[in-house]
Each structure stands twice: as structure tokens, then as C-alpha cells.
């Protein structure tokens, strides 16, 4: 058996047995994709978050595949495949409503290409860190190259279905054992390459209850301003993921602890501090309970909760306060949300839903006639999210709880019973999906 040191020098991965992984835990369509690729002579493994979650005893949200086959080669093997992306080409193999993402092994492109004029930093950016931003990511490589170019060791694990071993090139299993998030390589370099990794580190640490390694945390705080140089849709997507993943409360507390919220959401810089901040965090904790109860939440719902203190503040400055009409609330939402919507290119649909959610709380407060309008909207696709928002608000605004209960009873009478009828006793009342004792692993038959 190859020793650890020899394996590292030879570029070979550490290989771990996975007694807790069974075929039933692996998505059959993902397994089919891996088998077809390997049957045609390509390397193919389950990669990334699905391997991490399986080893932690959690149910993966989706399954991704890494392969030596190029995107067009993947498309030739699967009639139900399309190639997407410009900066990062991927193959999507489609099974009904499910998509199995297939990515070709890649290597770090820095040093392989000379930057063109369009890659030069803007005037005033300067600095060695700003020159490291990755703008192209289609340089193909080996499985080891692919592991080393990923963001964190916990996301760089490969599962070889043929041998039932986890392949670990970068110490991901050790980080899972230590419940640690750190970058692969120098944190300042890796964060400067892609500042969105700041938000990803916060998301994984919060969702998995891991700690962020000190040098990685220091780089995140020091380079937070670089997020302004990232594509707005990517940053908005990560903000949505922070909000909807079932750990919004811990995520935004972590952002606030490092002052990162002032860069990520400068519009909410003051609202996430002091008493207003505690109110927002309390609502986010309740939203997390909604998610952990198995009810999907949307980014628009999360943003409505995040911006609620600013809307209340704007109403107070106008003198509307507790007697605000629905139109007053909608006008305040438009005013408060406008800077964020312009900066982040927020879709119109999201802005509409945020206005709808925040105005609904006033309808709930306004009596039976206003609640009748809410009941009339019960058939809309957005109504489950609306009901979830009202449940969250009623948990922190106690005067809203009786009218919310009345609304829920009216829904039940119409056969539209909502699961959010009663306040739960607390986070312990809802079991997190896939919660369980994390896998500790065995190294090629050895106890670890």
C-alpha cells in the first residue's frame, strides 16, 4: 500500500473506503451517467458537494459528475444532453425535471494565458490581488488538476463508483473530520481569484456548522471589497443561496460579525446591527425553520425579510407608522429597494414579489375585508411563499399572530390547509434533513 507521503509526491490521491455509502444513496441517473462515460473509456466520478454531503450523513440536493470527456464528447454520448456556459462550459444531462451536471476536469488557467486588454483591471483597482481575478475557466486538465483548482477541500472529493472509494487529493476528508472550511492553497490568492468564495465559505460554514480557518477568514475580511468586481448575477445568486439554504440566520450573523454585510448588502449596513439586526436575525431563524420543515423558500422571500426593517423605518419617517395603508407600504418598498435593485440587477418579478409579501402583512393587520383579499390570492403560485412570510412576521410581531391564525383556519375550511398553523417550540422541533453522525472514514481498511 502506498504511504501518504509517497502518494502526495506521485500526485496520487488518498483513497478511503466508504462503508456508509450504499448504491441506494446514489441517484440512479447520476450512476447511469458515470457508467456510460466509463464504459466508453473516460474517467468519471461523482464530485463535489454530493460526496461531501453523503459522507456527512446528509441527503445531497443534487449529484454532479466530473469526467475526462470534453463537453462535446459528453453530448455525443447522451441524446438528452445540452452544453451550456461561456466562462465555464458544462454538459447538462436531462432526465425529466432533473439535471445531472457533467463538468470536464479543469486546471487553473492562471499562467497559461496572457491577459488581453479587456482583462486589465480598471483604473483605481490596482494591486497584485486584483490581477488574479479569473475571467476564463475552460483550460482542461486531469482529475488532480480539477481537485486543486476547486475552492475548498471539502468540495474537492471524488467518489469512484467502480471501487467504492473516495479519492482525496487535497485533504478534504481531514477537513470534514475537523469540521473546518479553508481554501485550497494560499487564502489571499484563492479569494482574489474569485471573491465570490467569500460568500460560499460563509454559506458552507453556516449550513454545516463548520468553523472557518483563521487565515481564510482573515483573507475574506481583507478582500471583501473585491466582491464589487464580480458579476452581479453571481453575487445575487450567492445572496439568494445564503437566504434559502436553511441557515440564513447563522449566515447573516457571520457576515455581520466580520463586517462583510457592509460590502455584500451596503443598503442594509445599519439594519443588520443593533436591535433592528436582532429582529432581522430572528425572522431569518424562523425562515430557516420553514425550510427545515421541508417547505421551499425563495430568494424574494428572504430579501423581503432582510429589507423589512428599512421599510418600517421609511414608513416611520413618512409619519405613516402603524397606520400605514397597503399603498403606503408598497411605495416604501419601491423607495427602499430601488438602490439594491439597480446595483444588483434584481429581476422585476423578484421586486414585485417583495412588494407583495411586505404589503400582505398590512392586509393581515387591516381586518376581515383585507384578509379576504389574501384568501382570494390562495390559488396563485406565489401564495405558499406569501403564507410563509406571514408566518415569519407573525412570529416577531405578536399582534399579527391572531389574524394569521384566522387566515390559516379560513384556508383550512377551503381545503387549502397550510402546514404553518402553529409556532414550533424551537429549532429542535424540526429535524434537519439528513442529520446524523458524520462519517469518519477508513483509510484503505485502516481505522482512522
Describe the protein's architecture and organization:
- The chain is of the alpha+beta class and 448 residues long.
- The chain folds into two domains: 4-115 and 126-185, Beta Polymerase, domain 2 (2-Layer Sandwich), CATH 3.30.460; 262-428.
- Helix content is 48%, strand content 10%.
- The strands form two sheets. It has a ten-stranded mixed beta sheet.
- The two termini are 16 Å apart.
- Residues 1-10, 111-128 and 421-448 have low confidence and may be disordered.
Percent helix, as a range, is 40-55%
Query: What oligomerization state is this entry in?
Result: single chain
Instruction: Return the domain count.
Output: 2
Number of contiguous helices? 19
Coarse shape: globular
Can you tell me the CATH architecture of the largest domain? 2-Layer Sandwich
Helix-strand makeup class:
alpha+beta
Major sheet description: 10 strands, mixed
Number of strands: 12
Radius of gyration: 24 Å
> Can you list the strand order of the major beta sheet?
4-5-6-3-2-7-8-1-11-12
Strand content: 5-15%
